[in-house]
Amino acid sequence: MLRDVYPDWLESRRSTKVKTQAADQSAYRSHIEPKFGQAPIGSITTAQVAQWTGSMVAAGMARSTVTRYLSTLRSLLAFAVADGRLTRNVAAGVKVPAGGRSRREGEFLTLVELRELASACSGRYAETVLVLGLCGLRFGEFAGLQVGDRVSVPGPGLRLQRTVLAESDKGGLYVDTLKGHRARTVALPSEAAEVVARWAAGKPAAAWLFPAPNGGPLGESNWRRSLGWSTALASVGRPTLRPHDLRHTAASIWLAAGADPKVVQRVLGHASAAMTMDLYGHLIDASLWDAARKVGGTTGAPDEDSDTDEAPESDDSGA
Q: Domains of the chain (ranges plus CATH)?
């Protein structure tokens, strides 16, 4: 039975990140076990797996979510093959069909709109909206900052080394390594640097930079509630904006300021500049015509203000 393989497979996954383990367990309990748990592993067919994924898409589930569930089943069956319990992984060649609920596009604010949102928020955390919207931090990275993570050379910045995440089933918080285990340093624009300096003042290096109201690390739900997130969004006319969209906002602001995509990649902590381009290429495309005007138009012709009355001097040298 597939359910007999599950405990051993789960044990083999102990070296993965806590968040990944939680996602695996959730996928198995809610979708894989009800469908295949009672089935002999050798009886599961490729057609059955394809039908399973297709039924979830047809039910309106997001394609990215179905892909995650399929990945978990594929990993479980791959373990069974490696352990000699199966001869082949019947999920290996299955592809999630198109359709289903489309993935939500990220929203972003202009710099002016970001400042308006920060002003609309209430309480002590209101100004931290600027840190998230200017620095491109994931909320867990923001919550995981300690006072000692500040850097000053070659300029004010933050060294991101940990993240604070919420347990999916219990709702508690835990500290983990960064996504991809990649620490990075983010430069602080002046407005964000001022906020960080105020919050760090008088605290020891090991203290949380942005602690929860009662101490300890700060959770996203607590943060939203404390600054009146929903009310603030309504007041600025952006009711569907998520805290994670402040990360998209940072990407937009940096690109609009002329930052190279490689720089934005480092700010956001993406694995490659290609990933940054895939996600935010439409923002870069918007500046193509600005660039064209700067080089004299798409044809290379001189600007209208250029002096074109004088003919160039002839060159009799024959060169």
A: 2-82 (1.10.150), 111-285 (1.10.443.10)
